[in-house]
């Protein structure tokens, strides 16, 4: 709206300067009509400004203004010679504005409407149904032949087409950059928030852990004393169990708050996954059976602390096996990508994650499980960030969940680099 007002002011000023330089009458065509157009643009712009705050749909409001600009530019072109108007460059400018406000498709529609409007006016001029005022005897007006009409309209149409294509491409890139920037800003805010929380809470966790160890040891010693009633033994057992649970929670929190730099090294991804699956298969706390299939390209390695990598794999595997029903399936798929990194996908056929929960699953202490701590996926996210990797999730209710990890690549063999897809290397059963 500001640019439109400036343009109207510039047009009015140029008309007045031209009139004064040529010693023309104040009311002479086409200057009089230009005065009217400039005044009309000012009034319409004022109307836009008044109704702007009450217009709910900004893109629709922008579309109305763009359509009005096409009509305004067409009126200016008509008043200044139409086919020979020096203001035809305004059409591509309107198309660029339409693309910025309405996107690529909106830019195409703007270009189409501009070409149709201009083409209709030129047809009316060519067949003698319309004559631009004040330009009948102008020296720079050539004979209105079909060759001139075809050449000049083709140049304008081509300019509008190229402008819509280029501006549409730039608008798409700009929108993608904005989306990527928004994601990055969200991640930065999360990291900053977690860093502050981690620094504050890590010290508190250490202060809690030491008394817990003393409390647990003292209770163990009291249990060995004689003269306790049976119900005293039961209470002592509860106290020991809960102290161990708190100690485990504090240990997990310390791993999340201060994971440590670790020692990055080249780790075979297939071996790490198979070891994790075998480790969990021996855990007696798994109350159901889940099938685990491993599809990892042989020779694919990642550059990461081996302990951190196994912690990531273990947390994801525990999460997946707890999500599936009896006989459910968990699939690991790993391969090298073209960007010299490694992609690892962990997919289960469980109930999936609700859409409102997806954006919170990496937040600390967020959990949908009855007995969960909400730190498992937070630890995964933190450890991957520490090594320069990342994680994202794809899930729909009823369709399972898939966690996609990007990991820094270690030294890989040429065969691994050319791997085009996953290779089935084994299947295990956990229970």
UniProtKB/TrEMBL annotation:
Keywords, ordered alphabetically: ATP-binding, Kinase, Membrane, Nucleotide-binding, Phosphoprotein, Transferase, Transmembrane, Transmembrane helix, Two-component regulatory system
Catalytic reaction list: ATP + protein L-histidine = ADP + protein N-phospho-L-histidine
Residue ranges of domain Histidine kinase in the record: 203-411
Superkingdom of this protein's organism: Bacteria
InterPro entries named in the record: HATPase_C_sf, HATPase_dom, His_kinase_dom, HisK_dim/P_dom, HisK_dim/P_sf, Sig_transdc_His_kin-like_C
Enzyme Commission number(s): 2.7.13.3
Enzyme class of the recorded protein, top EC level: transferase
Transmembrane segments: 35-55, 60-78, 84-102, 109-129, 149-171
Molecular function per GO: kinase activity
UniProt-listed Pfam families: 6TM_PilS, HATPase_c, HisKA
Protein name: histidine kinase
Organism: Desulfoluna limicola
């Amino acid at each position: 709206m500001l640019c439109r007002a400036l343009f109207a002011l510039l047009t009015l000023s140029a008309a007045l300067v031209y009139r004064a330089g040529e010693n023309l009458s104040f009311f002479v065509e086409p200057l009089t009509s230009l005065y009217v157009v400039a005044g009309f643009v000012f009034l319409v712009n004022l109307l836009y400004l008044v109704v702007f705050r009450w217009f709910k749909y900004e893109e629709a409001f922008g579309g109305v203004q763009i359509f009005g600009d096409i009509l305004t530019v067409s009126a200016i072109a008509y008043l200044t010679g139409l086919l020979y108007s020096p203001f035809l460059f305004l059409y591509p400018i309107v198309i660029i504005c339409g693309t910025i406000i309405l996107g690529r498709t909106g830019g195409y529609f703007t270009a189409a409407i501009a070409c149709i409007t201009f083409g209709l006016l030129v047809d009316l001029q060519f067949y003698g149904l319309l004559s631009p005022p004040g330009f009948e005897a102008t020296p720079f007006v050539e004979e209105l032949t079909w060759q001139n009409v075809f050449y000049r309209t083709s140049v304008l149409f081509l300019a509008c087409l190229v402008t819509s294509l280029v501006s549409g491409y730039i608008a798409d890139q700009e929108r993608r950059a904005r989306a990527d920037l928004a994601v990055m800003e969200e991640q930065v805010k999360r990291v900053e928030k977690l860093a502050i929380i981690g620094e504050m809470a890590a010290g508190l966790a250490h202060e809690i852990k030491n008394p817990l160890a003393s409390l647990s040891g003292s209770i163990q010693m009291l249990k060995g004393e004689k003269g306790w009633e049976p119900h005293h033994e039961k209470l002592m057992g509860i106290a020991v169990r809960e102290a161990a649970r708190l100690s485990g929670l504090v240990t997990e929190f310390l791993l999340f708050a201060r994971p440590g730099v670790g020692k990055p090294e080249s780790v075979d991804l297939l071996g790490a996954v198979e070891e994790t699956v075998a480790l969990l298969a021996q855990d007696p706390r798994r109350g159901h059976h889940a099938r685990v299939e491993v599809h990892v390209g042989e020779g694919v390695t990642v550059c990461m602390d081996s302990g951190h990598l196994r912690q990531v794999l273990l947390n994801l595997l525990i999460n997946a096996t707890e999500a599936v029903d009896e006989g459910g399936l968990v699939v690991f798929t790993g391969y090298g990508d073209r960007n010299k990194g490694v992609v690892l996908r962990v997919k289960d056929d469980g109930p999936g994650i609700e859409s409102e929960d997806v954006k919170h699953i990496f937040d600390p202490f967020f959990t949908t499980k009855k007995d969960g701590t909400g730190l498992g996926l937070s630890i995964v996210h933190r450890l991957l960030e520490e090594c320069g990797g990342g994680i994202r999730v794809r899930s729909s209710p009823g369709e399972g969940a898939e966690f996609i990890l990007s990991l820094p690549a270690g030294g890989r063999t040429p065969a691994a680099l050319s791997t085009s897809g996953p290779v089935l290397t084994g299947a295990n059963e956990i229970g």
